């Protein structure tokens, strides 16, 4: 039987009618509830009870990712099937009772109309505005393009968390994310993880920070060349604050770095250049994947099922002194290649200079490539990168939104730029805090005259990412689920298996002729007695608002695969210790008193490490890190300096172990002593309260006992077996 055949439609309609009849029969057999208890005014004895409205048609069965609303058999005339308003019903399908009316007309919620649309402030959306407008329109939400005096549910910012002063709702930016994904900060965060787990973080090229590590860069390159004279590397220099390919260039030797000029005022990162990338049509390309960081605590990560592939516009050749300056050959940045005469704009997702990532995977699959393995490696790269970024993000978060103070919850879409090597190993190029969400491109009509032209490839990918991000962050979803649990019930609980439905198909079809004749009779009679169409409309209005949308394009990867990656979160646990001893809410640097308190409370001082030695350690490390940072507004020890001091203490206390086991053991020790301290404070607080109550004379009013000392947040026990880790490769499906 074909998908859209009349037999299938009639069978589906018959099944819907059967379900509706079952529900109506069950409703009649229910025990009547006291009218007053049900929220209805009590009626006097002998007063006629109002007739119950006809049951609303049931929700149709899902076909793939979309639900088809119930409809009468296609053989019925349209004029007969069209409902008309019925007297005695309000415009929203609720029975009119004397003295009562539909509350929606007066602006008050009722059981049918209580759910308002989600409100979105798009006044700061900037370049993502067009895609955002389409997404809001598809979701049937309410947009405020010029802001709103009253709070909105969601605020969409184009640049950073601080685009608006927000005290409630949800905002699509995390505080500190822009600073965290800059090239220097990202390289330092990944380097810490490479020191702990070198095999797990080999997806990021070896990096040096300029100008601070220029001498180290020169020495290490010379040492490798002396050991292997055949090694002829190429390096790529990227300005720290650069974007869209600005200021990037290639070199063959450290002496080629442009030390003069702006390097002191504009720091940069120099990395090993990937000389053997995967080529398609003899062109180098990279992948832009969209990653949703839904929350920090607990950590939730989603990856879009499709992304963009940006192509160079000149055939690739391995770097040589002759082609180092050919940016259209070596740099995949869209903002650069669009100015090439070879750039191809295409409405097809599988051709042109910008294509969908799914079209690339399809092409690789046709050549026998294991696509699941490629996706598994990419997912692993994304999770590990986010794990490297989250510790310092927590410090930024508690600084801008301290615990106990009003503030919004945050989420953010990140753009991961990934390069596939010739052996299909993914390499992380960079992470973008503000990935472009434009869905049009500039087309030059004449020299110097440009016009914005819609890009179907961008719209297909980016609108889905924004729309489904909003669906995941929907603040009213739980309310709708509580109001209409049957609509949001899982598919397998709402409908029997397909095999069961098909087994009774012959029986249903045998009754179609009888049902059809009955329907014709009812339809003819409906001219005189119109059906309760308003009730049906109300039922459809309350249906699942996502029924007309495709399935969500964002796939959860964490905490789904948390068991495979939790052992990597050592620095995250160090950040919890760091935040605990910051002392003052809103600060981001640890003072000398806080560091001494950390040493004392965790019982780290001993004959080999006196408190004076701990003070010297604090001064030395803090002074060195402060000299490397441009921002000198706050004095004290930053998180990365604290991590370095923690590594030093772990190596002194637990010798003859790998670094990650030393660090894990010291974290366990600190968390153990702090948990004992928390228990002691809790017991002291209880004993003080009970002693005050016993000393209070009888017959006199008791005064409020002084509050117990505030117990600091108890750290979570170590359950991930971090000190028993083997460097095995972890894959996800």
Automatic annotation (TrEMBL):
This is Tubulin polyglutamylase TTLL11. PANTHER family: TUBULIN POLYGLUTAMYLASE, TUBULIN POLYGLUTAMYLASE TTLL11. It is found in: Cytoplasm, Cytoskeleton, Cilium basal body. One of its GO terms (biological process) is microtubule severing. Keywords: ATP-binding, Cell projection, Cilium, Cytoplasm, Cytoskeleton, Ligase, Magnesium, Metal-binding, Microtubule, Nucleotide-binding. One of its GO terms (molecular function) is tubulin binding. InterPro entries: TTL/TTLL_fam. Polyglutamylase which modifies tubulin, generating polyglutamate side chains of variable lengths on the gamma-carboxyl group of specific glutamate residues within the C-terminal tail of tubulin. Preferentially mediates ATP-dependent polyglutamate long side-chain elongation over the initiation step of the polyglutamylation reaction. Preferentially modifies the alpha-tubulin tail over a beta-tail. Required for CCSAP localization to both spindle and cilia microtubules. It catalyses: L-glutamyl-[protein] + L-glutamate + ATP = gamma-L-glutamyl-L-glutamyl-[protein] + ADP + phosphate + H(+); (L-glutamyl)(n)-gamma-L-glutamyl-L-glutamyl-[protein] + L-glutamate + ATP = (L-glutamyl)(n+1)-gamma-L-glutamyl-L-glutamyl-[protein] + ADP + phosphate + H(+). Residues 40-51 have a biased composition (Basic and acidic residues). Residues 93-103, 724-733 have a biased composition (Basic residues). Residues 25-108, 688-733 are annotated as: Disordered. The keyword Isomerase does not apply. Residues 688-700 have a biased composition (Polar residues). Its main location: cytoplasm.
């Amino acid at each position: 039987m074909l998908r859209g055949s009349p037999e299938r439609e009639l069978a589906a309609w018959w099944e819907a009618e059967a379900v509706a009849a079952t529900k109506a029969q069950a409703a009649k057999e229910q025990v009547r509830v006291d009218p007053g208890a049900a929220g209805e005014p009590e009626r006097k004895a002998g007063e006629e009870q109002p007739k119950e409205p006809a049951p609303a048609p049931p929700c149709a069965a899902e076909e793939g990712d979309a639900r088809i609303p119930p409809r009468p058999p296609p053989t019925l005339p349209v004029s007969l099937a069209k409902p008309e308003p019925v007297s005695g019903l309000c415009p929203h399908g609720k029975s009119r009772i004397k003295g009562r009316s539909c509350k929606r007309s007066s602006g008050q919620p009722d059981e049918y109309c209580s759910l308002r649309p989600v409100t979105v402030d798009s006044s700061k959306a900037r370049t993502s505005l067009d895609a955002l407008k389409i997404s809001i329109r598809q979701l049937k939400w309410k947009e405020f393009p010029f802001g709103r005096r009253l709070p909105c549910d969601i605020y969409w910012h184009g640049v950073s968390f601080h685009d608006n002063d927000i005290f409630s709702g949800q905002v699509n930016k995390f505080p500190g994310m822009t600073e965290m994904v800059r090239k220097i900060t990202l390289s330092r965060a990944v380097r810490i993880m490479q020191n702990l787990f070198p095999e797990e973080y080999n997806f990021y090229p070896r990096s040096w920070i300029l100008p601070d590590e220029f001498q180290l860069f020169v020495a290490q390159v010379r040492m490798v060349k002396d050991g292997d004279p055949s090694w002829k590397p190429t390096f790529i220099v990227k300005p720290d604050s650069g974007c869209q390919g600005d200021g990037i260039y290639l070199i063959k030797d450290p002496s080629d770095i442009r030390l003069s000029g702006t390097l002191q005022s504009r720091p940069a990162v120099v990395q090993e250049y990937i000389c053997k990338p995967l080529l398609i049509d003899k062109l180098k390309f990279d992948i832009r994947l969209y990653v949703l960081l839904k929350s920090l605590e607990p950590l939730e990560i989603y990856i879009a099922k499709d992304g963009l592939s940006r192509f160079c516009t000149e055939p690739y050749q391995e770097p040589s002194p002759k082609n180092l300056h050919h940016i259209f050959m070596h740099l995949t940045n869209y903002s650069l290649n669009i100015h090439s005469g070879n750039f191809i704009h295409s409405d097809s997702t599988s051709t042109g200079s910008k294509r969908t990532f799914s079209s690339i995977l399809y092409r690789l699959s046709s050549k026998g490539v294991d696509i699941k393995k490629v996706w598994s490696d990419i997912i692993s790269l994304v999770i590990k990168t986010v794990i490297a970024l989250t510790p310092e993000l927590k410090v930024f978060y508690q600084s801008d939104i301290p615990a106990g103070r009003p503030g919004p919850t945050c989420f953010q879409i990140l753009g991961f730029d990934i390069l596939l090597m010739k052996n299909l190993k993914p390499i992380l190029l960079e992470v973008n805090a503000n990935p472009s969400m434009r869905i049009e491109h500039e087309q030059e009509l004449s020299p110097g005259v440009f016009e914005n032209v819609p890009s179907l490839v961008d719209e297909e990918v980016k609108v889905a990412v924004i729309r489904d991000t909003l669906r995941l962050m929907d603040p009213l979803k739980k309310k709708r689920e509580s109001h209409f649990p049957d609509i949001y019930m899982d598919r397998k609980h709402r409908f029997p298996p397909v095999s069961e439905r098909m087994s009774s198909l012959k029986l249903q079809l045998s009754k179609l002729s009888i049902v059809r004749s009955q329907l014709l009779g009812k339809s003819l009679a409906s001219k005189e007695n119109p059906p309760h169409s308003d009730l049906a409309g109300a039922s459809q209005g309350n249906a699942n608002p996502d029924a007309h949308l495709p399935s969500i394009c964002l796939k959860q990867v964490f905490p789904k695969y948390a068991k495979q990656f939790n052992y990597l979160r050592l620095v995250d646990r160090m950040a919890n210790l760091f935040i605990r001893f910051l002392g003052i809410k809103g600060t981001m640097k640890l003072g000398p008193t806080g560091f001494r308190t950390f040493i004392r409370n965790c019982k780290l001082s001993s004959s080999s490490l006196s408190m004076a030695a701990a003070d010297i350690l604090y001064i030395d490390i803090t002074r060195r890190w402060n000299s490397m940072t441009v921002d000198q507004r706050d004095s004290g020890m930053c998180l990365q300096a604290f991590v370095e001091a923690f590594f030093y203490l772990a190596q002194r206390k637990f010798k003859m172990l790998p670094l990650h086991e030393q660090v894990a053991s010291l974290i366990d020790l600190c968390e153990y002593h702090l948990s004992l301290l928390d228990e002691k404070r809790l017991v002291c607080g209880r004993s003080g309260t009970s002693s005050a109550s016993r000393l209070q004379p009888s017959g006199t009013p008791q005064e409020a006992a002084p509050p117990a000392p505030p117990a600091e947040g108890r750290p979570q026990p170590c359950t991930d077996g971090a000190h028993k880790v083997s460097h095995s490769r972890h894959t996800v499906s």
